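Here is one chain, start to finish.
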Amino acid sequence: MEPQDWLLMVLTLGGGVATASVQIGRLRARKHLQVVDCRIACPQTGSGIACTLIRDARSGTYVEVRRCSGAPSTGRGAGCDQDCLTWLNLGVPLRED
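Its structure:
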């Protein structure tokens, strides 16, 4: 084999290892997230809503509203400003269940 072939092989394998390590890191980081289905009182409207929240099990904080019956879905989660996360993380008891 010529030196260019060795260099190409090393760069290709290095790229594969780097890609695999990034994907494994992403899977490990996502492992601690929990999905919580609950009913809360919406801080904007005051009405009871059913929602799916994503909770960080390590810190105990809520990080995302995945689905909310009181807001239109945008494909990336609830279509509101997710103000309930701030209140829940501050310890305000919005939960009904």
